[in-house]
Write a structure and sequence with these properties.
Elements lengths: L1 H5 L10 H18 L3 H11 L7 H9 L10 H17 L4 H18 L4 H18 L6 H15 L7 H25 L2 H4 L3 H25 L1 E3 L2 H28 L1 H26 L5 E3 L5 H18 L4 H13 L1
Antiparallel strand pairs: 1-2
Length: 332
Amino acid sequence: FLIGVMRPRGPNIVLPTAWFADLRTASVRAVRRTAPGPEGTLLLGMSVGDTTGMPRWLTLRFRRTGTSHLLAVSGANVTIAAGTLVSMLFALRLRRRAVAVGAAVAVCAFALFAGAEPPVTRAAFMALLVLSARELGRTPDSANLLIAAACIMLALDPSAITSVSFALSFAATGGLLWLTPPIAARLETMPFVRRIPEMVRGTAADGLAAQLTTMPIALGTFGTFSAVSPIANILAAPFVSVLTIGGGVLIAAAGILPDLGRVVGLVLVVPVRVLLTLLAWCDAVPGAFLAGGSMPLPLAVAWYAFLAVLIRRAGALPDCGKARMLGETISS
């Protein structure tokens, strides 16, 4: 933050943000023509974060179930987009360096296309740092990546430190990095939890860690709390990648050929409606959503101190845990 304030005022780097904004607007219009209704709006929200035409009841359903982050472009979108492109480039038998350059270009283009909000910007910088580290033969460290991304973002824009999305993004990522492993270890000690598939346990640990670290910020800013958020996120997890990639395919198809966009939209109607049905069940749980609360600053500080004690008592993470968290800290 201080570096950003005191940095010398040299020539600014002009990015083609206006061009990407026009492309995004044209893409959104094409999707709305080919896939009208809440399904198309939901796909736009999950793929590029556009929720301008979303019905109020749908926005409230995601808010009440603690899954509003699915409608905002975040690191998960960056990871899915970059991972899909990397898989395609490797399938073409390109060299590793060419794949890395292609992935870096795709990450930058997607971040600009999505509006360069703090969560996607953080994930983009972390992804670029990972690609650079691997090309230099270095082993990426999740904590260093997170801190470096924060330093770069605040150096470029010191005012980002006052952004709620900036705070939520880094708090959630910190929770995934430092709090998920002890939660996952605790879940594995419960006999009835061991029988649950590992992927479900991991999703539950990730959701609980992110909720615990962002709760003071959410309560202080919005005054709301969703008690069913961990369950809702577990149920929504299988649909995130499908609908995010499907939304991107829909945008491309609608922009190239409207009839093809309609076909893609019809195919995606089924998973969208299944997801909405599951969220409706979660929303119907009594006491699922609490509104009107807040967390005073001293209590918020005490809460984070409590989490720090829990993390400290959990001890050092094993190497496998650090390796597992590397991708998740980028995708939060």
